[in-house]
């Protein structure tokens, strides 16, 4: 750090994203991207004419995308706000609903950015341990009188709570916002979107990065009561009114409209997931019951760090988190069937050796 850095940032530990190697060709199973290309409708929407319009600012209200999203999710446009990735919407939500006197509650094993943003904005973290089997006990979140964020399904465990469990948490915290991060919901979770009209304290966050093939476009949606969404817009228009670029607005609309492609690719991932889980279990791995596009797996035979390194040597990238409770575990993104066969071949070589 330079001698000019604000002392308020000295203690911040930034998030470490999964590797995005630019040199070697890896089988990339480390950042939960889709192995499939975006819908052909997306490719057509990002036309030369649209590129030429890049000289003009994008629509700060994102009206066209909001109309499409509202129809798609059966909501009103004022119940939705697009973000530059769901990360931005989560950040806006923490900025809007937490501060030094209003902590954020979240699980000990969950998405790492929640803690990073708390550090950046001096929000106290109330970290609630998952149970020994990595499940979350909803009762741990009753009557907290704090803002809550729950990834459902959770990452990196892949485990999901039923909608009724989240509803219990919403009821038990009527005076606090409950943020449900649904990054992986399209792979077998139960979305809380149908609860939005009933619970004014519910904020649902979804992303186009995992199930809609647009990680590089950076697009997410925050959905909730219109007043909550107005609060998020208050933050957005105080920071970066043109936060979604023109090409991404077009790409996102096209991706939402192509429901057939979305359903086909989600179904392919779910099928490959179930095949891969069986294959890993046949090799002695413990594999959690994933409702996401990744598997969380461990073997008694080798530590997670060693497996990660040896797989990388063989050209397969997976994610290992060097955190005490999960150091023996790997998070493995579901790729194409061929990707998963290559992973299993590499694992067989490593475990025999
Ligand atoms: C990937 C992920 C995000 C971030 O998604 P972007 O839309 O790409 O910013 C947020 N939350 C969880 C749990 C994720 O896994």
TrEMBL record:
Belongs to the class-II pyridoxal-phosphate-dependent aminotransferase family. Histidinol-phosphate aminotransferase subfamily. The gene is hisC. This is Histidinol-phosphate aminotransferase. Its EC number is 2.6.1.9. Residues 25-347 form the Aminotransferase class I/classII large domain. Gene3D superfamilies: Aspartate Aminotransferase, domain 1 (3.90.1150.10), Type I PLP-dependent aspartate aminotransferase-like (Major domain) (3.40.640.10). It catalyses: L-histidinol phosphate + 2-oxoglutarate = 3-(imidazol-4-yl)-2-oxopropyl phosphate + L-glutamate. It comes from Faecalibacterium butyricigenerans. Residues 1-22 are annotated as: Disordered. One of its GO terms (molecular function) is histidinol-phosphate transaminase activity. Keywords: Amino-acid biosynthesis, Aminotransferase, Histidine biosynthesis, Pyridoxal phosphate, Transferase. It holds the Pfam family Aminotran_1_2. Homodimer.
